[in-house]
């Protein structure tokens, strides 16, 4: 399965990054051997698909697995206890939120504000859903 990112300037979104989309190439039909879409080289340039960085404090146990990765991850600060502040480059806000949530209590998102807000809102929705589920099970 091949995924590619695209920027859709006419799409709705609260930020320029919310107008980015990710597509599975195998879902596009072609006619007469002519590709239905233009596939850009990966990684795409900022002009083609705007990227942003989100910053996360990682616990010492999680931070050990995070090293500098060109164009994707920068270690900004290392604390004496082994925890790290890292900046991760992303193009799709939802993917950033999912990454942060996948780290659980081992990470705390610091910025940008729109990612912090989306992580918080997602956690609140999950908590309400769990409360509802527990209430209906009784």
Summarize the structure.
With 138 residues, this protein is α+β, with helices and mostly antiparallel strands.
| Gross morphology | globular
Q: Could you report the average pLDDT, rounded to the nearest whole number?
A: 81
Strand content: 25-35%
- Cα distance spanning the termini: 43 Å
Major β-sheet profile: 4 strands, antiparallel
Structural class of the helix and strand makeup? alpha+beta
Number of strands: 6
List SSEs in N-to-C order.
EEEHEEHEH
Percent of residues in helical segments? 25-40%
Which regions have little confidence, pLDDT < 50, spanning 5+ residues? none
Q: Radius of gyration from the CA trace? A: 18 Å
Number of helices: 3
For the biggest β-sheet, the strand order reads 4-5-3-6
Protein model, in words:
With 138 residues, the chain is an alpha+beta fold. It is built from 3 helices and 6 strands; from the N terminus they run βββαββαβα. The protein has helices at residues 60-63, 93-102, 113-137, and strands at residues 3-7, 20-24, 52-58, 73-78, 84-90, 107-111. The strands form 2 sheets. It has a 4-stranded antiparallel beta sheet with strand order 4-5-3-6. Strands 1-2 form a two-stranded antiparallel ribbon. β4 and β5 form a beta hairpin. It is globular. The model has no long low-confidence stretch (mean pLDDT 81).
């Amino acid at each position: 399965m091949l995924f590619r990112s695209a920027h859709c300037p006419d799409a709705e979104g609260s930020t320029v990054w919310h107008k980015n989309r990710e597509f599975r190439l195998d879902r596009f039909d072609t006619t007469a051997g002519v590709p239905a879409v233009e596939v850009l080289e990966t990684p795409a340039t900022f002009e083609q698909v705007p990227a942003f960085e989100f910053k996360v404090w990682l616990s010492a146990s999680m931070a050990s697995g995070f090293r500098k990765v060109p164009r994707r991850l920068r270690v900004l600060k290392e604390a004496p206890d082994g925890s790290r502040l890292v900046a991760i480059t992303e193009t799709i806000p939802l993917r950033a939120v999912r990454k942060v949530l996948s780290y659980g209590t081992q990470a705390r998102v610091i910025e940008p504000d729109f990612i912090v807000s989306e992580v918080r809102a997602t956690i609140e929705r999950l908590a309400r859903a769990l409360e509802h589920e527990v209430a209906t099970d009784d």
